[in-house]
Amino acid sequence: MNRLTRRTALVLPAAALARPALGQAWPTRPIRIVVAFGTGGGTDITTRLLAPKLAEILGQPVVVENRVGAGGTVGADHVAKSAPNGETFLLATVSNMALALGLYARLPYDPVRDLVGVAPTVFVPLGIAASGRLGVNNASEFMALLRTNPGRFSYGSAGAGTSGHICSATFLSRIGARAEHVTYRNPGQTFLALQQGEIAFTTDIPSLLAPFHREGTARLMFVATEERSPHAPDVPTAREAGLGDFKAYSWYGIYAPAGTPDPIVQRMAAAIEQALSDPAIGNRFDEMGTPAMRGWTPQRFADFLKTEIDLWVPLVRASGARAD
Questions:
Q1: 115 has which bridge partners?
Q2: What burial class does residue 244 get, using C-beta atoms within 10 Å of its C-beta: 0-12 exposed, 13-18 middle, 19+ buried?
Q3: How far is the C-alpha of 293 from the C-alpha of 283, rounded, in Å?
Q4: In this predicted model, what pLDDT tens digit does every residue of 128-142 receive, in sequence order?
Q5: CB–CB of 83/258 below 8 Å?
Q6: Assigned domain for 19 exists
Q7: Same domain, 67 and 83
Q8: Same domain, yes or no, for 145 and 96?
Q9: How far apart, in Å, are the Cα atoms of 168 and each of 90, 158, 208, 249?
Q10: Three-class DSSP category at 131
């Protein structure tokens, strides 16, 4: 079982879900969750699935707001500079919390210093799909085509520094090929460009790419996970495709501005755990191919981010990908 998705029990007393410690009356106002990416993508969908349940648990409206730009760093910077009063949270990913540190020469925020981890929400496996118009049937043909046509093809993502961008760039570096990076505002635009042959390939969640794979407008070349995806069982893993230990994934999680009182952080973490434990929500995430990451404390989530930064920043720099 993946180390990120292991479902351990988080035992919390009922009182912890009913009110924050120290008798603080929170929340007393509507809560805003800023999604740093476009509408219709995985980050947006998962947050909007969670928001009604969180509102029910916390007794206040939970509003989802999209703030798009610069691979998720615009939204992250906005929350990092927001008042730490428990009214504003960030739905972040590995992109704007770890990858961005290797991609940008300077970030307007420090992911560790300026934001505090509350809880992860889902684990996100990734796969690479080629346009059906390329005429390649498998990963070997796909990689040979890219190697023998340096710079001829392009690949798409939802922005510089996103996990899709870094996965694609690292893949190209691994096989010794070159291709141009093209950014789109949302996954829908990227998928359309893939189907129409405007880009040669893209990286995204296998469950989202599987319908195009089945209809032949795109073909999943491989999934960058240890096991094959249940949404496309005929598609090999990266290792089976000859890429050795190549892996790529993302995760989503909730952060608060640094300085947010710990009782609020703990209360929000408990509410997220309760929401993720709801069978309807958990089953929906499983159907999407993005399993819930349950049983995490804020401290465990904070420690995890540091290990992710240590893992990904050197890989991003080695790939040669830059955003400024």
A1: 257
A2: exposed
A3: 13
A4: 999 999 999 999 999
A5: no
A6: no
A7: yes
A8: no
A9: 26, 12, 17, 11
A10: strand
CA–CA dist 220, 229 (Å, integer): 11
- How far apart CA 182 and CA 323 sit, in angstroms, is 12
Whether the CB-CB separation of 105 and 139 falls below 8 Å is answered with: no
175 vs 64: CA distance, rounded Å: 40
Report the domain count for the chain: 2
Give the model confidence (pLDDT) of 215-250 as tens digits.
999 999 999 988 999 999 999 999 999 999 998 899
CA distance 298 to 80: 17
Domain boundary among 223, 241, 269: 223
How is residue 304 written in tokens?
């995890």
63, 32 Cβ separation under 8 angstroms = yes
Q: Is residue 194 part of a domain?
A: yes
Mean pLDDT of 298-313: 95
- Tell me the residue range of the domain where 163 lies: 127-223
pLDDT value at residue 56: 97
In the sheet that holds 249-257, the strands lie side by side as: 62-66, 31-35, 88-93, 249-257, 115-125
Among 14-18, 143-147, 169-173, 313-317, which is the least confidently predicted range?
A: 14-18
The answer to whether position 12 is within a domain reads no
CATH code for the domain in which residue 67 is found: 3.40.190.150
Phi, psi dihedral angles at 119 (to 5 degrees) = -165, 145
Statement: residue 6 has pLDDT above 70: no
Task: Indicate if 158 and 83 belong to the same structural domain.
Answer: no
For residue 10, being part of any structural domain is answered with no
pLDDT higher than 60, residue 41? yes
90 forms bridges with which residues in the sheet? 34, 255
Among 316, 71, 324, 35, residue whose Cα is nearest residue 185? 71
Higher pLDDT, residue 163 or 175: 175
Mean pLDDT of all residues in 117-122: 98
Q: What share of the chain is helix, strand, coil (3-state, %, to 5)?
A: 45, 20, 40
Neighbours of 277 (CB within 10 A): 16
